[in-house]
Amino acid sequence: xxxxxxxxxxxxxxxxxxxxxxxxxxxxxxxxxxxxxxxxxxxxxxxxxxxxxxxxxxxxxxxxxxxxxxxxxxxxxxxxxxxxxxxxxxxxxxxxxxxxxxxxxxxxxxxxxxxxxxxxxxxxxxxxxxxxxxxxxxxxxxxxxxxxxxxxxxxxxxxxxxxxxxxxxxxxxxxxxxxxxxxxx
Length: 185
What we know:
The longest helix has 45 residues, at 25-69. This protein has one domain. The mean pLDDT is 90. The radius of gyration is 29 Å and the shape is rod-shaped. By secondary structure, it is of the alpha+beta class. α2 (25-69) packs across α4. Strands 1-4-5 form a 3-stranded antiparallel β-sheet. Helix content is 45%, strand content 18%.
């Protein structure tokens, strides 16, 4: 008898044992699914952080803009830097580097022209943040637009989930408030 039929029988028995043995299949299945699971998990966490940071920036803006709305910033003669340091930064959370990262833009328009005359410039050009911010809180009755910007760093962009709108894997968070100043004196 040739050795080939014995080899075929031994190979068939080994294949049957391999098919019937289920130990380790969970490990192999998890190894196949784990990278996708963790990529999705980290993308969800990062998206949640971006939304939370955006809402925190919006809250800081609303609290800070009230100082201009009521005329307190104008009466105190705050300039751009002092408004940022004394009003905006105390309202921001620990999520932001306020001193070096938050940009404040305050623009006023005469109330006679109405809200239709408000022109807001685009802060992103060619994938880069354009810092053309100014500080003009206006006077009583003027229309004012206050904007805050922050370049939020992203970490999960290498896994195929990219919500960056700036170069360097960053997303520009912005918050805007438009209002008419109260008639303060």
